[in-house]
Amino acid sequence: MLARSCLRSTRAFAGLRNGAVQITKRAASSSSSGSTAESPLRLNIAAAAATAVAAGSVAWYYHLYGPTADAATPAEEGLHPTHYPWVHQQWFKTFDHQALRRGFQVYREVCASCHSLSRVPYRSFVGTILTVDEAKALAEENEYDTEPNDQGEIEQRPGKLSDYLPAPYKNDEAARFANNGALPPDLSLIVKARHGGCDYIFNLLTGYPEEAPAGANVGAGLNFNPYFPGTGIAMARVLYDGLVEYEDGTPATTSQMAKDVTEFLNWAAEPEMDDRKRMGMKVLVVTSVLFAMSVWVKRYKWAWLKSRKIVYDPPKTDNSPRRF
Amino acid sequence: MGFWDTITDLVEAATPWATADAEAPAQELPEETTAESTKEEASTEAETAAAAEEPAAEEEEPAAEEQEEEEEEEEEEEEEEEPVDPKEQLEEDCRNSKQCSPAKHHFDECVERVTAAESSEGGAKEDCVEEFFHLAHCATECAAPKLWSILK
């Protein structure tokens, strides 16, 4: 379609400028036709016009599509999170489970009062973050509904390993009501749910400046955080130096806690990561063994072919030339 | 993150004598408990001693006591020794480094301009958010590897 319309337009163009068409024709078949010589003025005009059209079309295209229009200002976009060299993101590294344990402590002592972690059951802590006994004790601290009994009453029972972590609020409306209308999102999958993942969460938690930059307007009830799109976030800074006391004696600085809790949230969102990496290793190991075997097999199969010797043994003849 | 780290890790993992224990050997447990219990005993002793001292102190003037208590609380807070976040200092250094000087220059200039405009009649017509972004990005980028080498 495009090609055809192009053709048509060139034809129309040629009709307008007969001279130009003749020139091209002549150029193509100059040797055979050998027609009258064109004046160099017309040649120059045609070349200049073609160049002008070419340049004009480029300029027009640029005018139409060249500059990108951003619907959002940088402030609306939010500051691009800085990348940190997370150890667990390396190909052959697992989560640092000591850090996960610290991060869980931060979640429990700080974030859990506002954020739920409702996709994580107690059983998933066993062997990764807590021991069985610790996880059981933790589960028993909370009460859960039983199945209806004979009279149809629902009673409360202590939690079991198969239960999921309890949410701080009964429902989203209650959560909004308690937080000035802003809903603290569930953190189970937050690392996967935000651009920048771990980097974003870490930057968000540690990025509250002492004061908002001059002229920035921060909405009522909001706090300035450069990394949050729009820069006004309803969650105030929550992490302060020495807020929790780590059982392993790590100094609980703001960034240490943020790092630990971020890694923990990454685990919550991606608990299969360690297994997945081990699986990847297995794949590499097995394929490398198979490859090595295939090289040996190839050698074995080709040995006779490669080591044979093809000899051309010309028939014995006398040296007299032959006539056919 | 280097390539050789990976290789050495693999070698370490593959060597037959390399072991990784999930938990400390069990024999240590009783020792630990005894240590803890002795500690507890010591602390309870200390508490009782303190309790014995307290009535004596109470006999003194109550006003002075209150003051003392306040002081004590303050002291306690100081004693806890809040850890200092290395991030702040690292980023402050980065902000003042040569690498970030253009961003810092623009930000400072903007702050000056905007605060001047704010106090004037018309009010400020711009903000320094973008300048702040550039400076913050430069500083965190520069501090990131240093911070990670300090954090656990």
TrEMBL record, chain A:
One of its GO terms (biological process) is mitochondrial electron transport, ubiquinol to cytochrome c. InterPro entries: Cyt_c-like_dom, Cyt_c-like_dom_sf, Cyt_c1, Cyt_c1_TM_anchor_C. Binds 1 heme c group covalently per subunit. This is quinol--cytochrome-c reductase. It comes from Staphylotrichum longicolle. One of its GO terms (cellular component) is mitochondrial inner membrane. The gene is CYT1. It comes from the Eukaryota. Heme c binds at C111, C114, H115, M235. Belongs to the cytochrome c family. Pfam families: Cytochrom_C1. It is found in: Mitochondrion inner membrane. GO terms for molecular function: heme binding; metal ion binding; quinol-cytochrome-c reductase activity. Keywords: Electron transport, Heme, Iron, Membrane, Metal-binding, Mitochondrion, Mitochondrion inner membrane, Respiratory chain, Translocase, Transmembrane, Transmembrane helix, Transport. It catalyses: a quinol + 2 Fe(III)-[cytochrome c](out) = a quinone + 2 Fe(II)-[cytochrome c](out) + 2 H(+)(out). Its EC number is 7.1.1.8. SUPFAM superfamilies: Cytochrome c, Cytochrome c1 subunit of cytochrome bc1 complex (Ubiquinol-cytochrome c reductase), transmembrane anchor. Its cofactor is heme c. Residues 98-251 form the Cytochrome c domain. Its main location: mitochondrion.
UniProtKB/TrEMBL annotation, chain B:
Residues 14-26, 45-54 have a biased composition (Low complexity). This is Cytochrome b-c1 complex subunit 6, mitochondrial. Residues 55-83 have a biased composition (Acidic residues). It comes from the Eukaryota. Residues 14-102 are annotated as: Disordered. Residues 84-96 have a biased composition (Basic and acidic residues). It comes from Staphylotrichum longicolle. It is a peripheral membrane protein. Keywords: Electron transport, Membrane, Mitochondrion, Mitochondrion inner membrane, Respiratory chain, Transport. One of its GO terms (cellular component) is mitochondrial inner membrane. It is found in: Mitochondrion inner membrane. Residues 85-152 form the Ubiquinol-cytochrome C reductase hinge domain. One of its GO terms (biological process) is mitochondrial electron transport, ubiquinol to cytochrome c. PANTHER family: CYTOCHROME B-C1 COMPLEX SUBUNIT 6, MITOCHONDRIAL, UBIQUINOL-CYTOCHROME C REDUCTASE COMPLEX 7.8 KDA PROTEIN. Pfam families: UCR_hinge. Belongs to the UQCRH/QCR6 family.
